[in-house]
Design brief:
heterodimer, A: mainly alpha, 16 helices, B: 402 residues
């Protein structure tokens, strides 16, 4: 019999020196002061990117979708690549807010708010592309609103593209409600501190009469749990249905049964990388290093490592099956991916998604900010090219050699892609100025509390 | 930050599970009885008997593998809740060396079950002018040797991890936890690749013209789901017989949560594989499901979503349900039964186009392998302390959910 207890309780996520008051002050400060020069620099850069996008869209509206580089047989290229990329980015937010909540992972508390905000902005950015590809979105609105069958122009309910409409809108609605529900107590905290009359009015309206009574908290927690339960299947369903867009077809390289879990793992992988891209500058700029610690970042890196391995497994199983199946079309498309016209983009994808993340096996790299930032950007590049490869290489050389053609993007394709990043970063930068970037109540719940400490100073 | 004062501060070793020899002898008797039935089956219908061998061997093989996989995942994720339960999956994995013997014996059954064994004249891919990969991949002895090689590596790593875990019982050796974490990472990565290949080989190549990239994930999800169900059943019995501390109620509830989540995962994988093949409607893929939905097989096919998804998902949805041990036992039994039927459903329609219900060989094989599996697992529980008292995280684990 042994009663030795050698296990040192792990160091707390957030140091003891961080008091409740400090949390409130640090998190709310950015919303209560004028923006810094650093913020302005980033904001104007993002605006510049957005402007490029707006100009490209304007020209496209004027001249038609023909300005894109699409041809026959490549009817889908940058637009759908960007759509899938941005939808995928959103997944990390829901995973952190819902699944990690159900799994009682307390470290999520420091990153869930900004990740959820990122989800919403990513989905908004993604939705630009299906709208744009209709050519004249104002006409699309006529038959899409308020729901697609409204004018008895029955849409094809057997098409996964339509399932996508419902999946994405459900996802967006639930994510928004979940995010806003979590925000209510924090907005109330801001309202109670607000100086200006108008600010107080607006925040008072948004906080829905929150006063922090025990009953309110009980309802709040129940609602939060329910939302987490509702959002969890959505983490899986949205990208699953996006993968159906491809996998239900008979196109070699698209039709493969592993697509659903492979897309979901890839989405979480890319999403976490994007959270990292946003959080690292944010914690620096707003001095949040004590609440978003290296440990939080390290955990995120571990998730990226794990999901990166799943994506690698999916690549491997696709290549293996193409070889094993003796199906000539499958074989052709997969050997063509490695050695054909787009070989560089496929190898770039393998390098970024399967090789570079292996750096995270080493604690030294997992906890080094420059390394993790580099890896996160590499993953984003890799995940973008993953979608590009799936879409374009399969389409460009399908069953009939007479049909073959290659795709070269035009400046408008690039312009819209750049613009989507501009839109995303602009929205995120606005968010960090006006709303608390961390969940006050949830961060406080994991602090090491000395007895009798008060939330306010004095 | 518990509000309770009954925090456990000292680990009390409950010792090994006091299982009467009668019980372990009974397992042996069951196995012997099963062996006799199976031999009778072999004499009457060898094809059917070898099918039954494969079905039941895989059934317990997967349970044993899920034991070491669960252990490895707990180490890898630095889980603090589970050390108190760890002996259960460790014991399940003690069947693996015996599995090696029976996988080797299966060499004799391969010519009967796998049509590719007789050569490729009968099998034409879509075209004959491309390089035949299956001639190399599906050929003896490469086929059997690689399967045995994978199992040998799993046994090596499993034995190593379990031995380290047991060493900790008698002396404070916290570094072994770190070492086991590393071994677990090696095991899990190797397992992901080698298990997929094992499932392609033993199950998918029964239909040598069929292929599905999801197949490895599908078989894995069944393995993991039934593994957790087995752990739940053993944990509940161990607690009732005072082999595990009474305080593990929270752990059992969390196993219930796992069962709920995995029922969704399993059905997700199963549905996606089926739906994508049905929707694309390519003849080189659909025949697999057509075979399994005709000639009465649809009946078995419908049992799968019922046992593996509907029952666990609906019954375990309320949070109270996960604390109800009787309900958990019922659901776990359904899941394990579902897994057995799943393997039955993957193996039998290959050679039996009309539905066949379990016969003498299936029941014999089931009794034989389950008897043997229970014997090895319970012998392990009889020998080693049921709580890994020397684990550095054991106190955290004991206080879980308190």
């Amino acid at each position: 019999m042994s009663t030795t207890n050698v296990y040192q309780t792990e160091a707390p996520l957030i140091q003891e020196t961080v008091t409740m008051n400090k949390v409130t002050e640090t998190i709310l400060a950015p919303t209560e002061r004028l923006p810094s020069n650093g913020w302005w620099a980033m904001f104007l850069t993002a605006n510049g990117l957005l402007l490029i996008g707006v100009l490209s869209v304007a020209i496209q509206m004027w001249r038609g979708v023909g300005v894109w580089g699409l041809n026959h047989p490549i009817g889908w290229a940058f637009d759908i690549t960007n759509f899938v990329f941005w939808i995928g980015i959103g997944h990390a937010g829901t995973l952190i807010s819902a699944i990690l909540f159900l799994l009682r992972q307390k470290w999520r508390t420091s990153i869930n708010r900004s990740a959820e905000a990122m989800t919403i902005f990513a989905v908004m950015t993604a939705l630009v592309f299906p709208l744009l590809h209709t050519g004249r979105p104002w006409l699309a609105a006529f038959w899409l609103l308020p729901y697609p069958s409204e004018r008895l122009l029955w849409v094809n309910f057997r098409s996964p593209l339509l399932w996508d409409v419902f999946a994405v809108t459900t996802y967006f609605t639930i994510s928004l409600c979940f995010w806003f529900t979590g925000l209510i107590p924090d907005i109330a905290a801001m309202r109670d501190r607000a100086k200006g009359k108008i600010r107080k009015k607006i925040l008072g309206f948004l906080s829905l009469g929150w006063s922090g009574t025990m009953t309110q908290w009980m309802h709040f927690e129940k609602a939060y749990l329910l939302f987490a339960g509702l959002a969890t299947p959505l983490v899986l369903s949205v990208h699953t249905i996006v993968s159906f867009d491809f996998a239900t077809s008979i196109m070699p390289g698209w039709h493969t049964t592993i697509f659903p879990p492979y897309f979901v793992a890839g989405a979480i992988f890319g999403g976490f990388a994007m959270v990292m891209v946003l959080l690292v500058p944010m914690r620096k700029l707003f001095g949040l290093e004590e609440v978003i610690t290296i440990k939080h970042l390290e955990y995120m890196n571990k998730i990226m490592l794990a999901t990166g391995m799943m994506v690698t497994y999916a690549y491997a199983s696709e290549f293996f099956m193409a070889w094993y199946s003796e199906n000539q079309y499958e074989r052709f498309i997969f050997s063509n991916r490695l050695t054909g016209h787009y070989w560089w983009s496929v190898w770039l994808m393998i390098l970024c998604n399967a090789v570079i993340p292996q750096l995270f096996w080493f604690k030294k790299f997992r906890t080094s900010i420059p390394v993790m930032y580099f890896v996160a950007i590499a993953i984003n590049v890799g995940m973008w090219f993953e979608r590009f490869n799936i879409i374009v290489t399969s389409l460009s050389q399908d069953f009939l050699p007479a049909n073959w053609d290659f795709y070269s993007p035009t400046k408008y394709d690039f312009g819209i892609t750049i613009g989507s990043f501009g839109l995303f970063f602009t929205l995120f930068l606005l968010f960090v100025r006006v709303l608390p970037t961390l969940s006050l109540a949830e961060v406080k719940s994991i602090l090491v509390k000395p007895a009798g400490e008060k939330h306010r100073k004095g | 930050m518990s509000f309770h004062n009954d925090k456990i501060t000292q680990v009390i070793d409950p010792g090994p599970w006091k299982i009467p020899s009668k019980v372990t002898n009974l397992f042996i008797a069951i196995a012997l009885f099963g062996a006799i039935l199976w031999v009778i089956g072999l004499l009457t219908n060898p094809l059917r008997a070898w099918s039954a061998y494969l079905i039941n061997f895989l059934f317990v093989y997967f349970l044993a593998l899920s034991g070491i996989l669960f252990t490895a995942i707990q180490y890898m994720t630095n889980a603090k809740w589970s050390p108190v339960l760890r002996r259960i999956p460790e014991g399940m994995s003690s069947f693996l060396p015996i599995a090696f013997l029976f996988l080797a014996i299966f060499w004799l059954g391969i010519p009967k079950l796998y049509d590719w064994f007789d050569g490729w004249e009968n099998f034409h891919g879509l075209t004959s002018d491309i390089k035949r990969s299956k001639v190399t991949w599906l050929s003896q002895p490469f086929f059997s040797v690689r399967l045995l090689f994978f199992l040998a590596i799993w046994i090596l790593l499993a034995k190593w991890i379990v031995a380290n875990s047991i060493k900790q019982d008698n002396a404070a050796l916290p570094h072994l936890t770190k070492f086991n974490t590393k071994l677990s990472i090696v095991f899990t990565i190797f397992f992901a690749i080698s298990f997929s290949i094992t499932s392609y080989d033993l199950l998918m190549s029964l239909e040598p013209n069929w292929f599905s990239t999801m197949f490895g994930v599908y078989v894995f999800s069944g393995l993991f789901q039934s593994g957790i169900a087995a752990i739940t059943i053993i944990a509940i019995f161990a607690r009732r017989q005072d082999a595990l501390p009474l305080t593990i109620k929270g752990h059992i509830r969390d196993l219930g949560g796992f069962l709920f989540a995995l029922s969704a995962f399993m059905s997700y994988i199963g549905f996606c594989q089926f739906m994508l093949i049905w929707y694309a409607n390519l003849p080189e893929e659909t025949f697999y499901y057509i075979k399994r939905t005709q000639e009465g097989w649809w009946f078995i096919t419908l049992l799968l979503p019922l046992l593996k998804f509907v029952i666990p998902f609906v019954l375990l949805m309320p949070s109270q349900a996960k604390k109800n041990e009787k309900l958990l036992l019922f659901v776990s039994v359904c899941i394990i039964l579902g897994e057995w039927i799943d393997i039955y459903w993957m193996v039998l329609p290959t050679h039996f186009s009309k539905i066949t219900l379990p016969g003498i060989a299936d029941i014999g094989g089931l009794l034989f392998f389950v008897g043997l599996f229970c014997y090895t697992a319970f012998s392990f529980y009889k020998k080693h302390s049921m709580v890994p008292t020397g684990d550095p995280k054991i106190l955290t684990s004991l206080n879980w959910g308190a």
